[in-house]
Specification:
The chain is of the alpha+beta class. It is built from three helices and nine strands; from the N terminus they run βββαβββββαβα. β8, α2 (112-119) and β9 (123-126) form a beta-alpha-beta unit. α1 packs across α2. The radius of gyration is 18 Å and the shape is flat.
Length: 148
């Protein structure tokens, strides 16, 4: 199984079950991502819980400008608690309405990123060289009504 190495301090507590310490005494603070088992023949599918925070952090919840693709920005009130006041365009395009953010996965594999993106209200494009893995991704995502 391929190893993806992360510093232990970067792992949120609710995702700890998907990581395990590497037994190397020279790297005691690093972890290996555990894959999510699939019925299909893909050996290293990411767990959806691992993908989700990446998509939430990297895309706007409100969407992006339909004209130029710039993400809409959250307007916040800072104080004892941070509150969302609303959303504003991240560009100067006049009157452009937001559309769902777009996620690109250039190594789509089993299609986990596309599944999570759709669940979070984002659009996605998955690129996969392996016809076998592409078929797996299409089957998994067809349940969500996606076309790859």
């Amino acid at each position: 199984m391929p190893e993806l190495i992360f510093d232990e301090s970067e792992i949120p507590a609710d995702l700890a079950e998907f990581f395990e310490p590497v037994g190397n005494p020279n790297r005691p603070n690093y972890l290996v991502v555990n894959s999510q088992p699939l019925k299909e023949a893909h050996f290293a599918a990411f767990a959806e819980k691992v993908v989700e925070p990446c998509l939430l952090a990297g895309t706007s919840e409100y969407g992006c400008c339909a004209a130029c693709g710039a993400p809409w920005r959250r307007r916040r009130k800072h104080g004892a608690a941070v509150a969302t006041l609303g959303w504003q365009p991240g560009c100067a395009c006049a009157g452009a309405e937001p559309m769902p953010a777009l996620v690109l996965d250039p190594f789509a594999g089993s299609g986990t990123v596309s599944r999570v993106a759709t669940r979070l209200g984002r659009r996605s494009i998955g690129i996969e060289l392996s016809p076998a893995y592409s078929d797996i991704a299409q089957r998994r995502n067809s349940q969500l009504g996606l076309l790859l």
